[in-house]
Design a protein that fits this description.
4 helices; 0% strand; elongated
C-alpha cells in the first residue's frame, strides 16, 4: 500500500501501526470511512476538523493506490 508520511501518521494515531502492515487498501479505506462516520461530523452533519483530515487521508490513499 502506498502512503504519504502524513497518511501513515494519521493511520498510526487513529487505527494503530498494525493496520499499515497487515491490511489491504480497501480495508484501510473502510476503517477510515467508519472513523469519518462516527467522529467526523458536527451537530449540523457538516465535516468537523477531524472529518476533514480523515477525508483528506482517504482521498490521498485512494489516489496513491
Amino acid at each position: 500500500m502506498n502512503l504519504s508520511k502524513s497518511d501513515a501518521e494519521f493511520i498510526n494515531k487513529e487505527l494503530g501501526h498494525e493496520y499499515i502492515s497487515r491490511m489491504d487498501v480497501n480495508s484501510v479505506l473502510a476503517k477510515i470511512d467508519e472513523l469519518i462516520t462516527f467522529k467526523g461530523f458536527d451537530s449540523n452533519y457538516a465535516l468537523n476538523p477531524f472529518g476533514r483530515e480523515a477525508q483528506r487521508v482517504y482521498d490521498s490513499i485512494l489516489s496513491l493506490n
